[in-house]
Each structure stands twice: as C-alpha cells, then as structure tokens.
Design a protein that fits this description.
The complex is a heterodimer of chains A (about 500) and B (about 500). Chain A is mostly helical and about 500 residues long. Chain A has one domain. Helix content of chain A is about 75%, strand content about 0%. In chain A, a hairpin with a 3-residue loop joins strand 1 and strand 2. In chain A, helix 16 packs antiparallel against helix 18. Chain A is globular, with a radius of gyration of 21 Å. Chain A starts with a helix and ends with a helix. Chain B starts with a helix and ends in a 10-residue tail after the last helix. The relative contact order of chain B is 0.10. Chain B has a domain of about 220 residues. In chain B, strands 1-2 form a two-stranded antiparallel ribbon. Chain B is an all-alpha fold and about 500 residues long. Classes of the chains: A mainly alpha (about 500), B mainly alpha (about 500).
Amino acid sequence: MSSLDFIALLPILTLAGFALFAMLQIAFFRRLDIAAVMCGGGCVAALGGVFAASSVAPRTITSLLIIDGYGLFYAGLIVLATAIVTTLSYGYVVKQNAEQEECEEYFVLLLLAGLGAVVLTAAGHFVSFFLGLELMSVSLYGLIGYFRIRRRPIEAAVKYLILSAASSAFLLFGMALMYFQTGTMEFVRLGTAMTTAAGGDRMFVTGMAMTLVAFGFKLAVAPFHMWTPDVYEGAPAPVTAFIATASKGAIFALLLRYFTQVNSGHDPALWWIFSMIAVVSMFTGNLLALLQQNVKRILAYSSIAHLGYLLVAFLAAGPLAVEAVTFYLVAYFVTTLGAFGVVSILTKPAEGSDASDADHLEDYRGLFWTRPWLSASLTLMLLSLAGIPLTVGFLGKFYIIAAGVHASLWLLVIVLMLNSVIGLFYYLRMIVVMAATTSTQGTFLPRHATGPDEWAAVFSLTVLTLLLIGIGIYPDTLIRLIQTLALS
Amino acid sequence: MLIWLILIPLLAGPLAWLSERRGAHWPRFISIGALALDLALTLGMWSRYQESSAVSPQPWISSLMMPWIPRWGISIHLGMDGISLLLIALSGLLGIMAVLTSWAEIRDRVGFFHLNVLWVLAGVIGVFLALDLFLFFVFWEVMLVPMYFLISIWGHEHRVYAATKFFLFTQGGSLLLLIAILALVLFHAEQTAVLTFDYEDLLATRLDPVVAMWLMLGFFAAFAVKLPVVPFHTWLPDAHTEAPTGGSVLLAGLLLKTGAYGLLRFTIPLFPEASQSFAPIAFALAVIGILYGAVLAFAQYDLKRLVAYSSISHLGFVLLGLYAWNGLALRGAVMQMLAHGISTGALFMLAGALQERFHTRDIQQLGGLWATVPKMAAIALFFAIASLGLPGLGNFVGEFLVLAGSYQVSIISTVLATLGLVAAAVYSLALMQRTFYGPVEAPHQGRSSGLSGHVPDLSRSALAMFGVMIALQVWLGLYPQPVLMMAGASIERLQALTAASAIVLKR
C-alpha cells in the first residue's frame, strides 16, 4: 500500500482512530462532555479526511474498498449526519440520564456506527460489505437499547437484533451461493460473470434475491418493513434519526453501486421485483401512516414511503437517476434529521421505566403558540417531506419525477403522485395539531425550557432549517457538487 | 422592478409578524402599506405603458430574466403584459380589502394572520408574472400553504376539514401539472437538445397529437381544480364557507382567477391543437358549471355557500370564453374575472359583516333586515344586482362579451349558458328577498335584542370600502374601454401564438 492509499483511507482511519481513542480515554476517566466532543470531533476530522481523500480519488484499495467521488460524497454526508446526531444526542442523554448512569460509551457506539456506514459507502467486495454492515448493526443494537432500565428501548433493541440477524443470515447465504457459482466476491467480477453463462444460472439468481432481502430489511421497504415503526418508536430520538438517515443512506448508496456493477439493470425479473417493492412501499407507508397517533411512528411509516419514492428514481437508471437519488437523499437527510431533532429537543426529562419521548400527537398541540421557532422549524420539515416548493424536499421530488418521466416510467410516476397526495394528509394533520388554538385538556402542555446542554442541538436544528430553505431556494451549488463528485 | 412587486409583500410578511409585539394595529398598517405600494407601482406602470404603447408596442410591458438553476435551464423569468397587469391591480385592491375587512374580525394572532395574507398575495402576484414554468409552479404552490393556514386557524366550525380538502384537491391537480411540465420540458429537450423551462421557448415544441393531448390534460387538471370546473369543484363551497372573511375574499377574488389565468397563458397556447379538439368538452363542462352552480346557489341557506356556488356559475362563463378563443370572448373572460373578483369579494365582505352582527349565516334565521341595517342592505342589493348581470355594471360587460364571442363558436352552448343569466337573477333576488325584505324574523330579533338591543349598521370606513368597489363596478360597466384596450393587445398576441391552428370555428 502506498501513502496515497493511506490518504484515500483517511475518512475511515480517522473515524476508527477517534473511536479507539475515545474508548481508551473512557477507561481512564469518564466525562460525558469529553466523550461527546470526541465523537463530534471525530466526525469533523473525518470530513476533513473526505476532502483529503477526494484529491487522490478514484482509487481501489486492495480489492475490498473503492474510494471514488461517489462513495466519498456519501461518506461526507454520513459523517455530517453523525455529527448532527452527536449534537442531538448530547442534550438528550443529559436529560434522560436521571439515574446518573455512565453514558460515555453511547458516543463510542455512535462513532462506530458511523464508521460502519462509511465503510459501506466504499465497499466493493462482499467482505467489506458484510463488515461494514455488521459494524453498523451491532453498534445500533447497543444504541437502541442504551437506556436499558426502560421497557420500550429494550423491546425495540431486541426486535432490531433478531430481525437484523435474520436478514444478515439471508445476506450471507446469498453471498455464499453467488460465490459458489462464480468464485469471486468482488462486485465488478460478479458483474462480468453475470454477463457470461453463470448469469442465467438459478443458483446465482437465488443468491441475488437473497441479498435483495437483506437490502429490503435494512432499507425498511415493504414487505420487509415490519420492524420499522416499533424500532423508531422505542429507540431514543437521536438514534432513530441515525437509523433513518445515515444507516439507510449508506445502504442505498451501496445498493446503487452493487446493482449498477453486478446487474447493470438488465434483468427484467429483478426490475419487476423492485417496481413492486416500490409501489407496495409507497402505499403501505402512506396508508398506514394515516392511522398513527404517534409522531415517531408517523415518521417511520413516512420513511417507508420515501424509500419507495427513492426506488422509483433507482429504477429509472442512468446518470440522471444517480443524480436524482443523491439529491433526494441529501434532502431526506436534512429533513429527517431536523424532524427527529425537534422530537429530541421536545422530549422531557425521563421519569421511571415507562418513559417515552415526546412523540404523542397531543404533545404537539398548540406548539405553534408556545414554542413558535421550534414548531416553525418542524412545520418546514413536514412541508419538505410533503414536497412543497421552496423547501429542499420539493426539489428532491422534482428530481425523482424528472428521472421517472425521463425513463418513461409513467405508471410509477402516477403512483408516486397519488402517494404524495395521501402523504400530504398526515403531514397536514400534524401541522394542524401544532397550530391548534384550543386544547382538549383546556390548556396546552407546559413547556420546559431548553437547557444549556441542548444548545448544540438547537444550533444543529438551526443549521438544518437554514439548509432546508437555502438549498430549496438556491440548489445550484449542491447540484454542481453532486455532479462533480457523485457522477465522476 | 417586477421582482419588487413580489418581494414587497414577501418581505412585509415577516415584518408584519414581528411588529405584532408593538401593538395589534402594526401588522395591519404594514400590510396595507405594502399592498398600497404594490398597487401604486402597478398603476404607475399602467399609466406609463399607455403613454409609451402609442409609440412602440412591445410584447411585454416589463420583463425580467435572471438565471436561477442553470442545471435544469430554470431562470427567474418574469413578464408583465396587459392581462397580468390588470390581475395584479386586482390583487392589490382585494388584498387591501381583505386586510380592512379583517380589521375587527381577526383579533387573535394578528401578526401571523397578516403574514399569511401577504404571502398568499405574493404567491398570486408571482403566478401572474412567472414566465418560467418551474417558477410558475413554485408560486402556484407557495400560495397554497398560507391559504391553508388562513382557513385552518381563523376559519369557522369545520375549518380543518375544509382546509385539508382544499389543500389535497389542489395538490393533486398540481402534481399532475408538475409531471406534465417535466414531460413537456424533456420532450422539448429531446427535440432541440436544450433543457429549458422557459415559456417562450417551450411554445415552439412540436408534439405528437396523442402526447400533446395527455400533457394538455395534465395542465388542464391543475387549473380546472382551481377554477373550478364542475367535477373538481367540491372543495370550493367548503373552503369558501369555512374561511374567515378576508380569506374568502382572497380565495374567491384571486385564487380562482389563477386557474383561469393558467388556462389562458399556458394550457391553450402551449397545446393549441389539443385544446382545440378538447374545446367541445370544455364547453360542455362550462355550461354544466354555469347551470349547476346557479341551481345549487339557489338551494343554499348558508349565505357564504350561496355566494360560493354562484362563483362556480360565474367562472363557467370564464371557461366558456377562454375555450371560444376569439377576441370578443377572451376580452369578456378577462372582464368577467375582474368584475367577479370585485362583486364576489364585496358579497363575502357583506356576509362577514352580517355574521359579525347576527352571529349566523343562515338565511332562514335572517329576514327583513332592511329595517335594521339599511345601508348594508342597499349595498347588498347593488352587488346582488351586479352579480346577476345588470347592464351598466361590470359583470354584464364580461358575460355579454363572452356570450357574443362563444355564439360564433357554439350556438348551443351559448344558448344554454344564457339560461345561467336567468338563474343568476333568480338566486340573487331570492337572496335579497329572504334576507333583507319580508317580515322581520323572530330568531334574529331575539338574538340581537338579547345582546344589545340594536344592531349597528355599517361604519363609515366600511362604507368607504364598499364605495370604492361600487365605483369600480360602475366604471367597469360604463366605461370598460381602458380595461379592454389593456387586455386587448395581450389577447391578440396570445391569439397570434396559436394562429397556425387557431380554434376558429368552422360552422
């Protein structure tokens, strides 16, 4: 390995280094704020690493990792998302830690989960794929159930653990079948094997389908979505934000790379499976979201639908599709992080084992009049999820429809349109609740002040809100960044 | 210059919101100031245009072009012609009226109310100015959200239901529009290798007739929901009824006009052949709208619902005029949009004033009000008569021109539409009869005497407000020439765009 290879690996090395260092530091003396700064600092340093790596990209390091503009763009996105989750987490952990337990490891786990996600964006081989995936998942088990004396997080963690392990088993079996047939684990070589005789082989197709199941689980698209609402609801709000954004974003980035390199979209059967998944996800997510009374569950179902929208762009294929997916993911990251950011700031200090986040719709009644800035921010996030212009979410939807129309996927585009209207209904319902002038209990829930520990979270939320409007009004900078990096 | 027409209300909005802390009147003054400035700018452009147009006629009174999202060929392209100018002037006027009429009605969260009013107006003015399809779509959507808040926060009993229905209907149409816009742009890009959303470039797109028909329907759907054309109208009575008075004025006076404007500016010029073959269906829909709206208006007991249904009927004439696509009918349609904006706006303001005094909009509970509130009754009589199309007032000019124009295209539609005028007389007079004449109804008497003993008539400032609108109606009715001239040049230009395949009738 040359020194240039090390520069290319900088994002991964930095994250790993900081995680290791934080672990050692905790062993000697414990301080929550130092651990949090270590986690946030690691992310910022890794972002620097991404810039450094982009100067030497593209490079293939051993056969495991591909460092190119596309992967680095996503790595940067994930690192930023992790940094924002760190700021949200700090205030949240301080608030929730009524028992004065030791919480420093939370941040180590977060850093490791981020590392796993970054490895996924660079994976070009089954081994790195699996390593990254497990690194991320195992850290997430810990994070979801971190507040272990409470009922809900534990339930969510066990659910995630079991289903995630099952999907990993599918993935491994699928990989084994494909390896058996082709004798290689590299995506590129699998692609060439696909075009030759082995491609049509039943064993190979079965393996492909089994990896698809694993992707489906991690992306939480229907019919693999059952875990989503429970895990979203049970996990601490910042962790939910991580699952919804960084984890899914990394998997989607990998999905795009995997299927363009291995399959190149020629297989009609696979294409049909994906379109069915897209359609079913959109309808399932939106229709079930209509029935929810819990904000985190609404957001969970809405994320199922949003992944369905993303699949429409994915199916469109071609450079426009990659651009559309990337843009949409950026929009989705900003918006989802913001929405969960509001939830975690609103969450009141916990009492007892039955405590939950501020996630009931009733918690939000009249919020517009008690905490105008916070609810204005959440309103913008919801409008962005609904795809109303001047928010980044609209441009994302615009991109997806453009990609769909360009590829003449009329049916999928019409389904998407119908679903946007259904989706709008529950976003509006939340906005109405926030703008309500009267409450069922006569008075609004009392507000609790934002403590000094939450300034970092408030700062992040401000940045996200400004990004949401800023990119929504002037997307050109981001589009050019995507074109130079992600499409190189 | 043009961008300021949009920016003034857009920036005044947050200012009005923040100024609430200094006192409840501040947002009102700021809103009126901003809108008056907009109106003054527009009228200034009008007078300057009249001087200059004699020398050299240009396609746009004023236009503006700056790049926005070069990746997609999207630019901030604004252009004002006669039609836009008239509609923007109407927006300024009705905006001021909406603020004035909410003066006493809105006491709660005044700042946020005016923020929404100003942003609706910014969106509406943007719609009337945008010449880039993407920009148009952005404004088209942007006016929805504040309107949604106006209805859902300050509305009447079923406000959330009405606001949500309004938003969902419009959004459904809008997304079809977005898909159609994108398809049109991408087809254009395939032909010319130029990716652009610019209206003037896209006019030259040559489309396969089948494709053109589908895209035309996509455009038509969005505008038909807004106009509204009959099968898509069900949001309208709810939204108009539940909205606060100021919101109803904006909805009926302006938002409906954006649908008509979209058809006039985009649907028909972009897809002339498809529109021509669609015209018979549009005529049928227009006639159905005219008659259906009128019949349902007659059946209503809720004052605001009655006016809402009468809007459906009146806008049927606009649709008829647009698809007749000849000089007379189009001038009539523009005239009808202006006159309807003023007369319906005034009727909603009156309904609001009645509700404020008698706490009901139910016609059955009202009666013989002439004795109690004579000034209000007289004004109501004026606008009821204007709305039924009495010669000498604006609505008559509009409806007459539409019918005269459409007669050349489709006699049967015209004959049927004329029946709408008769029906308009029936429901307008019935409204007057039931509410202001006849025996004094017991419930309102008990109610009013229970409260204060006597009900105040319109205040002097309200009289001044209605006075302005009466004067405008009379002006439009007696001397429509300046307005027709103003719209005429633009209409001829639009007709020239479609001249190759103009929807001229071959009888």
